[in-house]
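Forwarding the complex inputs:
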Amino acid sequence: MSKKVSEIDEGFVMKTPRSSMETKTGSWRAFKADIDYKKCITCGICWSYCPEPAIYLKDKKYTVDYDFCKGCGICATECPVKAIIMVRESD
Amino acid sequence: MKKLLLSGNTALSYAVKQLDVDVVSAYPITPQTTMVEKISEYVANGELNAEFVPVESEHSALTAALTASASGARVFTSTSSQGLLLMHEILFITASMRMPVVMGIANRAISGPINIWNDHSDIMAQRDTGWVSIFTESAQESYDRTIQAYRIAEDERVHLPVNLNFDGFILTHTYEPITTIDDEEVLKYAPKKQRNLILDPKNPMTFGGLASPDYYFEAKYQTVKALENSLSTIVKADEEYQKVSGRGYGIFNNYMTEDADTIIFSMGSIGGSIREIVKRMRKEGQKVGSFSLKLFRPFPTKEVVDALSNAKSIVVLDKATCPGAIAGPIFLEVQACLKSFNKSIPAMDIIAGLGGRDIGPEEIKTMFNKGLKIASENKVDKIMDFVGVNA
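Prediction (whole assembly, two chains):
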């Protein structure tokens, strides 16, 4: 959605922050991160490495937010107990 | 009003102190060093209540100034030559984010070979970064223009960064008796004006965000138009300053150009020398004139065309080169203006004074003689020539 020059704030300041939350990027993904909770030791390394960040703590369990997970696989690579596997998204 | 013995550098420092700048971030580089030294002294001894940020590079110097400006502070930075080049990417961002940063540039040649002396290659390499760009001819003018710069930059119709160009060593290190105006007068003329949009934890906003193809073009258009529209505010700021101080400079200095057969078009400190040669050559009956441009960005196209339109020939003096192009940067600009307004005046470019090579009376006379020859023959043999080089 484009705007007219007069509708853009001076210096391209965005008065309503968190607008990136409105742009869901989950559809960009080819692989999704899948956490196997039988193996997960809740160490939080996936949470700290996720560049998005799309992993958050919910009810004492690290959970992937699929609205934003781009499927980069860093969490799967860094997980010390190999609890995260990358699963190909079905078309 | 006090009279002080100051160099170009320390005249700027003194103005910065009077302007009650909140944040100064700068990295020392010859020939700008003494300006930063003086400001840090003012901060250390309590004469200026400001945060002095001793950064590790010019890239950081401008970034710190830009972000401090985003938080609503009045800021100052300064640099020269390689330092200005290191600021390159942040120069664009400062203008695009519409931050009223003021910067002093002690104009110096660009490496290589390494050279610390004056020419205009540093600012010419940064001319399209979107800043208001002013050239001065004396330490007094540098002082006065610094005060004007804040009024221009912080004006709500402008909100753009301003750079002040003063020739390295020729102005930065030459001491002059400077007539200052009182502190109260300075702040009355250039009161601190905050933008509506500032970084504030209580009211968070996004600064410097990503603009997708849906938005980038419009944002860029806004910045380009802002610089174009700043001209009238800049002219007005100078007129108002004249009322306060008795000194005004205009956007150019036009000397004996009305009936001139040839005019030298110059920028910076060389203007005074050229006017002196005009006086001497006029006594010998030669109709020569001088046009010294003060406001380089926004380029006052219409005003330049009007001022030059009576000339029979024009010699543009470039203290920088555009290797591989037809001529130097100022020539390209002047020619584009004249041709666009259907003024067909034979003109040539002279490259001179690179890397601190002195431009003396003989060199200026040589330039005028080339111009007079073009005027009498009504043709240009060489579009670009070099004066003062041992070719």
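Residues 7 and 13 of chain A are 11 Å apart (CA to CA).
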